Amino acid sequence: MASNTSICGICFLRQITKPSKHWCLECEEALCDECKEHHKLLKVTRSHEPIPISNYRSLPSFITDIQQSCIYHNEQYQQYCAEHALPICFKCINDHRKCNVTTIENVTISVKTSGQFLDLESRLDDLVQNIDKVKKNRKANFTDIEEMKTRHVKEMKQIRYEINKHLDNLEKQMIKDLEEKECQCKERIEKVLSSVKEKETMINQCQANFLSIKQHASDLQTFLGMRKLS
């Protein structure tokens, strides 16, 4: 890729700075509108098809970094060595005499409609579709997880409600049972207290009688009365 694609390469050689609008793939050079018109008129470049500079900048770097001229002889590639899978210029042919060499045109003609290119395109489309399926599947899983969480939270709240309801009923029943037992115990205690009260009254009466006998009865009365008190 040229070091500066923002200015016209031809104008730059003329010490004129003009913004580039086009890119010639064959010449590997940026062109302004005026130079593009001259480019189309020159016999040697008449067949070239410049593209908008924005389209060129959109190409991936591994494509724009590909040299289209021989780095050893500074000439455009004209031949292709199939054995080394390398484009070569005419001066490189001496190093590839025993190789299967053909013209660049033979290997690049209709390359964008070739089976290999279409296969790559199809495989990329398949990858995009597979990724889209994975994304949709994961998003569906995401939704399922949210719904599952919501369902479990609802179930837990319902279980907690049932447990609380059961505990409330159990508490009420236990309180009721305790109150009944309390009443029963109080009734028994009251009966005991009533019986004790009666005995206390009797004992107090006996004690009063005993005191009266002690103070006022004769010895004979006391002696005979003791047997009754016993």
Automatic annotation (TrEMBL):
One of its GO terms (molecular function) is zinc ion binding. The keyword Metal-binding applies. Residues 117-173 form a coiled coil. SUPFAM superfamilies: B-box zinc-binding domain. PROSITE patterns: ZF_BBOX. The keyword Metal-binding applies. It comes from the Eukaryota. Residues 3-53 form the B box-type domain. This is B box-type domain-containing protein.
